[in-house]
Amino acid sequence: MTDPSPASLADRVRDGDVRFHEIEEYADADTAAAARRRIVAEATDTDVDVLGEYAFDAADAHGSNIENMIGAVQMPMGVAGPVAIDGGALSGERYLPLATTEGALVASINRGCSVVTDAGGATARVTKSGMTRAPVFRVADVAEAEALVEWVRNSEATLREAAESTTSHGELLDVTPYVVGNNVFLRFRYDTKDAMGMNMATIATREACDRIESETGASLVALSGNLCSDKKPAAVNAVEGRGRSVTADVKVPREIVEERLHTTPEAITEINTRKNLVGSAKAGSLGFNAHVANAVAAMFLATGQDEAQVVEGANAITTAETTADGDLYASVSIASLEVGTVGGGTTLPTQAAGLDILGVRGGGDPAGSNGDALAEAIAVCALAGELSLLAALGSRHLSSAHADLGR
C-alpha cells in the first residue's frame, strides 16, 4: 500500500479490504487511530476530532493497554499536599496526584492533607500482601472433595514449583481450599512484588491447575471461580485481604480540629460512629467509610492502576475516637488495595508522570517496596479525604463547599 493515510485506510475498511481491528498491520498506531476516528465519525455523524488530541504515541498504548484505539479521553489532574507521611516504604512530604472531574474533591483532600501535616503527619503501614486467583474444580462427591483438599495440603511444594515456573518474580505464598458440595475452590495467594500481579497470578495458577488435574481426579471448570474475588465487592477480601492491606492513622490536636476544621473531636467521632459504622451496617455495606472510593479512584486514574479494582479499594473502615487528652485519633484501613508500579497502565507516559510525582515509578529496591509505597500514599490520601468530609459534615459546610466548587 503506497498511501497509508487515514482517509485511504478508512476507505479500504469500508470496501472490506481491511478489517477494522487490523488497521495497525497497514500503518503506524497513530495513523490507524486517526483512520478509526474517521470511520466512527462518519458512521455516527459525530465530531470526534478532540479524541485525537493526546500527549503520547498511540503505539505506547495500543495492544498492551487498548484495542481498536481511536484516541484518548483526557481528565484534569490536580495535586493535594504536600502531606507528611511516615510509612514503612514511603516517608517525607509528598504531593498526591489526583485525576478527577468532581469539583471540590481535590480541594477537600488538600485541606485534609494540610491538617494531617500540621498535626505532625500520618503513619502508614502495609500489614498484609498477596494477589489471589481462585479456580473452581468439579469432583464426584464430598469424599472426593476431601481427598483433593488433603492432596493440596500435602502438595504445596509441588504446586509452588509449578506456579513459580511461569514467573521470575512471583512467589506462591499459600493455597486455601473451600468446599461447596462437589465444588472445590482453591484460593492461590501470591507475592507479586511491585506488579499489581493479576496476570502473573492467573498464568501461574493455570500451570498449577494443570498439575492438579494430572495428579488427581479433579476437573478444572474455571480458572477464576469468583472466590478470588476480582472486581466485585466481596466479604472474603474484607476479611482475608487481597493485593495490599494498608492502614493509615493520625492524631490531630484539639486546637487544630477546632481552628482548621471548624468542629470538634467529639463531633467527628460521633459522625463517624453514626454514619460510617452504624449507617453502613444498616445499609449492608462492605465499606464502612465516608468516601474512600473518591481518593482511591482519583489516584488510580492518575497513576495507571486498573480502575475497575476501585470496587475492592473502597473496601475500607474509617475509625475515629476522642483521646483521653481530648485530641482526635482517626484511621483508615483498606483491606484489598490492588496496586502496582510496573506493568499495565503505569507504562503510559502521563500515568508514569503521576508515579514520578510520588517517586515510586518502576521496580523498588527491595522488590515490592514501590508497590507498598504507593499503597501507603493512597491510604494517607483516603485518610485526608475522610477527615475533611467528616469535618464538613460536623461544621455543616458540605453543601456550601459543593455549591462553591462543584458547580
From TrEMBL:
GO terms for molecular function: hydroxymethylglutaryl-CoA reductase (NADPH) activity. Its EC number is 1.1.1.34. It is an enzyme of class 1 (oxidoreductase). Keywords: NADP, Oxidoreductase. PROSITE patterns: HMG_COA_REDUCTASE_1 (PS00066), HMG_COA_REDUCTASE_2 (PS00318), HMG_COA_REDUCTASE_4 (PS50065). Pathway: Metabolic intermediate biosynthesis; (R)-mevalonate biosynthesis; (R)-mevalonate from acetyl-CoA: step 3/3. It catalyses: (R)-mevalonate + 2 NADP(+) + CoA = (3S)-3-hydroxy-3-methylglutaryl-CoA + 2 NADPH + 2 H(+). Gene3D superfamilies: 3-hydroxy-3-methylglutaryl-coenzyme A Reductase, Chain A, domain 2, Hydroxymethylglutaryl-CoA reductase, class I/II, NAD/NADP-binding domain. It comes from the Archaea. The keyword Oxidoreductase applies. SUPFAM superfamilies: NAD-binding domain of HMG-CoA reductase, Substrate-binding domain of HMG-CoA reductase. Belongs to the HMG-CoA reductase family. This is 3-hydroxy-3-methylglutaryl coenzyme A reductase. It comes from Halorubrum laminariae. The gene is hmgA.
